């Protein structure tokens, strides 16, 4: 609380929603650099000669994409009916070892699901309690971490070991959830405070809470589990077809996804801007006065200075430029389907 | 720092009211704007609308949440701060000045008796914390 953080409970953690203010924090990340305490995220380690084959049958993406040691891939894992159990990043951390980063709120369910689908020859370890995760994001992030680590971090969607300030051992993953370049820093939880302080010693670094993390990811159209995707949505309908490899062979949910792909999804997750107000999760989306969907993720975009949202609508209404409306409590406001991401020209898109 | 001018009266929903003759200017307190965080949108009634003591007259929305506005008094809306449309951050920056919301022609001046003084309001906030 010494940093002036406003705390809320989240998935069993006391989490900072904001330090100085969501808009200032958001803009600091787009302009310079911000750090996020995301220690609540779940980390699983999967180890064994059969780990690759077993994980390949659990996740939808093709893990051959990360044959290279140190590379990472975004994916989802599905139930047999094709619905999403969670979205994950899988890192190839050792010859026969993988690290999975998952949503905090799904930790127990994910662990049970993965364990259930692993043969006895594969070791599963929930590392979440002793693993700290701190994200450093923004156009200045790579310069700052290079300064601290003594060398530039690995390429995008790769990770590597490093020592910060020549003392603190960390793993630097060139990943993030903001649309800006940067790293996610993994370390033993006993080193978390040291890492946080080292990062804060740079005056251009702003501590950011969950509020800015949400507005930043929403501007990029990144899916949030619980809002955009959940146990009732499938990845094809959610616009995550690019993380589903139907060609790689058998995996849980594949049969169902093959059918959805053949039939064509009935609905689609679209990006919307509204003429006024701030759309929020669950608000009705209308077309010609008829209810056609609800807001999945919604909020205020500090970059665009307006309300933005995602929503599932029938495919016939998913084309860019389609005029819809959103019921924002007592008011119905005009909305338009736009192309995601909402914000372009970030340090990541410039690369 | 938050402040609570002594020439204003306050209600439990954190609105302030400044009485000038038979009209009253209404806004939200420094405490309220601080709790809300950065205000990004305000929905206010139109001139000519009627507001009722204790009932909602609009909404104020910050990046993270939306809150209803409750009128401390009853009467007809005679002025609305349209500047807030393009610059709602005035509510954070100057809650008692440029962040004012509506001006109401008082229907029943005795409603003012039920409101709190600056000191009473500060005690009220302290007791809620």
Note down, in words, how this protein is organized:
The complex is a heterodimer of chains A (351) and B (129). By secondary structure, chain A is α+β, with helices and mostly antiparallel strands. Chain A folds into two domains: 1-263, Gyrase A, domain 2 (2-Layer Sandwich), CATH 3.30.1360.120; 266-351, Aminomethyltransferase beta-barrel domains (Elongation Factor Tu (Ef-tu), domain 3, Beta Barrel). In chain A, 19% of the residues lie in helices and 36% in strands. Chain A has helices at residues 22-31, 51-56, 107-116, 141-149, 192-200, 210-220, 254-263, and strands at 6-10, 13-18, 33-37, 42-47, 72-78, 84-94, 97-102, 123-126, 131-137, 159-164, 168-173, 182-188, 205-208, 267-274, 284-287, 290-301, 306-314, 323-328, 331-338. Chain A has a six-stranded mixed sheet with strand order 10-11-12-9-3-13. Chain A starts with 5 loop residues before the first strand and ends in a 13-residue tail after the last strand. By secondary structure, chain B is an alpha+beta fold. Helices cover 20% and strands 34% of the residues of chain B. Chain B contains four helices and nine strands, in the order E-E-E-H-E-E-E-E-E-H-H-E-H. In chain B, strand 1 and strand 2 (15-20) form a beta hairpin. The radius of gyration of chain B is 13 Å and the shape is globular. In chain B, 43% of the residues are buried. Chains A and B meet through helix 1 of A and strand 4 of B.
């Amino acid at each position: 609380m010494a940093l002036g953080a406003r705390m809320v409970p989240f998935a069993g953690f006391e989490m900072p929603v904001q330090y100085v203010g969501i808009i200032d924090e958001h803009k600091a990340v787009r302009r310079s650099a911000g750090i996020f305490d995301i220690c609540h995220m779940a980390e699983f380690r999967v180890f064994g000669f059969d780990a690759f084959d077993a994980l390949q049958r659990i996740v939808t993406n093709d893990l051959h994409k990360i044959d290279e040691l140190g590379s990472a891939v975004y994916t989802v894992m599905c139930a047999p009916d094709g619905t999403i159990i969670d979205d994950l990043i899988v890192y190839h951390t050792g010859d026969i070892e993988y690290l999975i980063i998952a949503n905090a709120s799904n930790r127990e369910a994910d662990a049970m699901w993965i364990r259930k689908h692993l043969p006895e020859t594969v070791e599963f370890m929930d590392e979440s309690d002793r693993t700290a995760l701190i994200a450093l994001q923004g156009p200045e992030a790579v310069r700052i971490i290079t300064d601290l680590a003594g060398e530039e971090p690995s390429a995008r969607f790769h990770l590597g070991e490093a020592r910060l300030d020549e003392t603190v051992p960390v793993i630097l993953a060139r990943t993030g959830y903001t649309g800006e370049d940067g790293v996610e820093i993994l370390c033993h939880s006993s080193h978390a405070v040291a890492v946080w302080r080292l990062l804060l010693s740079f005056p251009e670094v702003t501590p950011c809470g969950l509020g800015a993390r949400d507005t930043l990811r929403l501007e990029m159209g990144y899916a949030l589990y619980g809002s955009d995707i959940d146990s009732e949505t499938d990845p094809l309908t959610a616009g995550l077809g690019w993380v589903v490899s139907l060609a790689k062979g058998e995996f849980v949910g594949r049969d169902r996804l093959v059918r959805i792909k053949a039939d064509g999804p009935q609905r689609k997750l679209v990006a919307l801007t509204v003429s006024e107000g701030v759309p929020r999760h669950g608000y009705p989306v209308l077309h010609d006065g008829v209810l056609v969907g609800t807001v999945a993720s919604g909020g205020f975009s500090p970059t665009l200075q307006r309300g933005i949202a995602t929503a599932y609508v029938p495919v016939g209404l998913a084309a860019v430029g389609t005029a819809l409306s959103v019921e924002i409590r007592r008011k119905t406001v005009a909305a338009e389907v736009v192309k995601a991401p909402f914000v372009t020209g970030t340090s990541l898109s410039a690369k | 720092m938050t402040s609570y001018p002594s020439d204003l009266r306050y209600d439990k929903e954190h609105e302030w009211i400044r009485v000038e003759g038979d009209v009253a200017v209404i806004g939200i307190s420094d405490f309220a704007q601080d709790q809300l965080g950065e205000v990004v949108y305000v929905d206010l009634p139109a001139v000519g609308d009627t507001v009722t003591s204790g009932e909602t007259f609009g909404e104020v929305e910050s990046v993270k949440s939306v809150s209803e506005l409750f009128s401390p008094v009853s009467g007809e809306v005679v002025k609305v701060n349209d500047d807030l449309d393009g610059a709602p951050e005035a509510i954070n920056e100057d809650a008692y000045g440029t962040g004012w919301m509506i001006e109401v022609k008082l229907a029943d001046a005795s409603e003012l008796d039920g409101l709190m003084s600056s000191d009473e309001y500060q005690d009220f906030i302290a007791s809620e914390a």
